[in-house]
From TrEMBL:
Its EC number is 5.4.2.9. It is an enzyme of class 5 (isomerase). Keywords: Isomerase, Pyruvate. The gene is aepX. GO terms for molecular function: phosphoenolpyruvate mutase activity. PANTHER family: PHOSPHOENOLPYRUVATE CARBOXYLASE, PHOSPHOENOLPYRUVATE PHOSPHOMUTASE. The lineage of its organism: Bacteria, Pseudomonadati, Pseudomonadota, Betaproteobacteria, Burkholderiales. CDD domains: ICL_PEPM. It comes from Azohydromonas caseinilytica. This is phosphoenolpyruvate mutase. It holds the Pfam family PEP_mutase.
Length: 296
């Protein structure tokens, strides 16, 4: 297995060598293993896989049966990070929610950096965290620009290495504050020391995401841009790569798909009074033995 130092440095190396990375949510060691082993061959000699793992606060809390309201701190989630690192060599991008107070964020940065995490993403909201895709249907408030910049600076000052990345996530488009506000904020966040920008949107056509990337690239050609195409799911990886994004995160699909599969199996066993009908939808014992090293 990789040491923490080598693991932490992977993401920066990948960003230097590839135009755009694919990251898949993993909420458990088994989901991380599946992400690492997933492969597709679009043509002979080509091999496509995932470059990184996304540790989502939504799926981490949902996996524990808890609401997605920042109830799990970075410290609460570190054991799961360690468990994932025991079985997977992929670098990790960590969903840090709001990051908490600047003093707390500095401590979280140190802990994640020591653990071997490659990057943390914090969003520019304040107060009780609500899921971004709820938009203005619930009360959500953005942080003041200067206060969020202070949090970024606190994280930068806490860094012990040049490997770890702090990515600022802008919620202006989520909260219908407009493109100008999103640009103003993101330029300020980069100036404050953010290593990258995640722009988020709940619009299903994805056009404001593409527009943002084009505008942002007029100011910063090499600052990593991150997107999460949960709402605009029709846009292909190649389209987002072509628009100027450097990381595409599929942020919750492993847990969402697992939930539907488990729900269906549980109900069908009751319906049929046996497991025969669900066996084709279940992982074979032989495949489990093959997937988990050392089981045979």
């Amino acid at each position: 297995m990789l040491t923490s130092d080598k693991r932490r440095a992977q993401l920066r190396r990948l960003l230097q060598g590839k135009r755009c990375l694919r990251a898949l949510e993993a909420h458990s060691p088994i989901s991380a293993l599946l992400a690492q082993h997933a492969r597709f061959e679009p043509a002979p000699g080509q091999n496509v896989g995932y470059d990184a793992i996304w540790s989502s606060s939504l799926t981490d809390s949902t996996h524990k049966g808890l609401p997605d309201i920042e109830i799990l701190s970075a410290s609460n989630r570190l054991q799961n990070v360690h468990d994932i690192f025991e079985v997977s060599a992929l670098p990790m991008i960590f969903d840090g929610d709001t990051g908490g107070k600047p003093e707390h964020f500095a401590l979280h940065v140190r802990a994640l950096e020591r653990a071997g995490v490659s990057a943390v993403v914090i969003e520019d909201k304040r107060g009780l965290k609500k899921n971004s895709l709820l938009g203005n249907d619930v009360f959500q408030q953005q942080d003041a620009v200067e206060e969020f910049c202070d949090k970024i600076r606190a994280g930068r000052e806490a860094l012990l290495t040049d490997d770890f990345m702090i990515v600022a996530r802008c919620e202006s488009l989520i909260l219908d504050q407009g493109m100008a506000d999103a640009m103003r904020r993101c330029l300020a966040y980069v100036e404050a020391g953010a290593h990258g920008i995640m722009i988020h949107s709940r619009k299903k056509d994805g056009q404001e995401i593409i527009e943002f990337a084009q505008l942002f690239r007029e100011y910063h050609r090499h600052v990593p841009l991150v997107c999460v195409p949960t709402s605009y799911a029709h846009l292909k990886f190649e389209e987002l790569e072509g628009a100027g994004f450097n990381v595409v995160i599929y942020a919750n699909h492993m847990l969402r798909s697992a939930y539907l599969a488990m729900k269906g199996v549980a109900e069908d066993i009751l319906r049929n009074g046996r497991t025969l009908e669900v066996e084709p939808r279940c992982l074979g014992i032989d495949e489990i033995l093959h997937l988990i090293p050392g089981t045979r």
